[in-house]
Amino acid sequence: MKFPKPVLLALKDKDIYIPTAIQMQGIPVALSGRDMIGIASTGSGKTITFALPMIMFCLEQEYVLPFERGEGPYALIIVPSRELARQIYDVVMDIFQWLEKDPKMPKLRAGLCIGGIPIREQAQVFKDGVHVCVATPGRLSDMLTKKIFNLEASLNLN
Fold first, then answer.
1. Residue 38 belongs to a domain with what CATH number?
2. Residue-wise pLDDT tens digits, 31-78
3. Does residue 2 surpass a pLDDT of 80?
4. Residue 100 is part of which domain span?
5. Could you please report the per-residue DSSP string of 9-74?
6. Which of 23, 43, 53, 109 lies at a CB distance of 3.0 to 4.6 Å from 30, suitable for a disulfide?
7. Is 155 among the domain residues?
8. This prediction's pTM
9. How many domains does the chain have?
10. DSSP code, position 109
11. Number of other CB atoms surrounding residue 23 within 10 Å
């Protein structure tokens, strides 16, 4: 699969020219919609390995039927700490910003669902609709219980 030019520019901006071992093995598996377990050392590119296929899926869905206010997320990433959630969110948002620079690309949105940030701020982002949610378990549970958003649109891979 070829990636859109803005995605390639985002990778180039991060000095990523050649995929790492985990990326060479994991990206094709994830693009095919299959489950996988990837084990690799810190800094080996695991986030890009799952983020690129996730972003491609969101782009594909946005072309088929554009998002409306309050919809989403298609993708849910649950992590154990706020710090890791922020790191992953930043990687996703960086690629989204590169996509936004191309007028031919649809706008994708992400939401950060973590403690330590006022829930009202996060709620507004989700009310506008997000394609990707990066969350910690506690805040995710809180926001789902308060019906700030739901997971009906999320892809469930069996």
1. 3.40.50.300
2. 998 888 989 988 899 999 999 999 999 999 998 888 888 788 999 999
3. yes
4. 5-145
5. HHHHHTT--S--HHHHHHHHHHHTT--------TTSSHHHHHHHHHHHHHHHHHHHS---TT---S
6. 53
7. no
8. 0.90
9. 1
10. -
11. 21
